[in-house]
Amino acid sequence: MAGVVVGLKDLHYAKLTNDDTTGVVYETPKKIAGAITATISPTTNSATLYADDGAAETASSLGEISVTLNTKDLPKAIQADLLGHKVNSDGVLVRSADDVAPYVAIGFRSMKSNGQYRYIWLYKGKFQPHEQSYQTKGDTPTFQTPTINGVFVKREIDNRWQAEVDADDESVNATVITNWFTSVYEETTDTGA
């Protein structure tokens, strides 16, 4: 499992349609072409109890997880899915103050320096409308790519927030890697049959 992360590709999202005591349900993952960067920043909240003139105990809990994605483009259908916008009958993306972003999962893979991949799924988050910036073309073209920010949290059903696996980990079932983007990863149970 040696190797250092050196790449990013195959960015996917899947709408989360149910997360409660009855189970968790995702729609089929869809690809976002042209992944440039993905930044995952978990927040840990901690507290220290002082006793006898010194630190005696410490405890921490997971807060929100900030996710920033930079892509080559965010087509209108993907913006509608991620941000709750609508594409009207004329094919125009229309943004409204009443739009509500749905919960989604985000998955991708990252090449490592040994040629193998690390696979990631973030289970539950919402994205916020992204900043739009336009610049005139000068002597040298400047690429203007969209960045979208989201806040991810743990799932209600099991408190899980992320799944991660390296393809070169010999203990991993090969089917897990093969099916990584066909559905959001969920642990398989061996029935022994």
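[next item in queue]
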Amino acid sequence: MARNFYPAPLQKVIRGLSRWPGIGEKTATRLALYLLRAADTEVTELAQALIDLKAKIRLCSRCFAFADQELCPICADPGRNNGQLVVVADPGDLIALERVGFFQGTYHVLGGLISPLDNVGPRDLHISELLSRLHSEAIEEVILALNPSLEGEATTAYLAQELQGKPVKVTRIAYGLPMGGDLKYADQQTIKESLRHRVRA
């Protein structure tokens, strides 16, 4: 798409938006043109929200999820079940689990997964902080909810070993067929995991 027809400020916004994940140049152009036609108050509010996003969002001092205070809303909620702790790789995974509205415990965000190819080892993640929480909090169960990838499996195995012998129950989320899925169209690994993590009927 020839951007030479657009004034320089408009081109700059298109370039900036097209760097965002999932947004190509055509979508970036549509968004930029929308912003150009939008009311000044709407554009100003969006610009201020983006500035606040970078200035005010930090990591929770307890679980390392996104927060705008020292503690995130989940850690600050006295109604949560502190006996159950779900371990996730990043804040996006936490948000996905919270959307379900089923789990009422707390979380711990590792900040990634063990990946030797990317030079990410256990010391690069919030594993030592996780172990510290076992001593300072009344945690009864640690639920490992990491992606079923090579890195996720390696991290799960490492954490299971680190938690072995600790006075907590260690479980992991089950992997397998999705609700409404069709067995004959499932890939071999999914079927294998469904059989491995089967439960009593």
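[queue empty]
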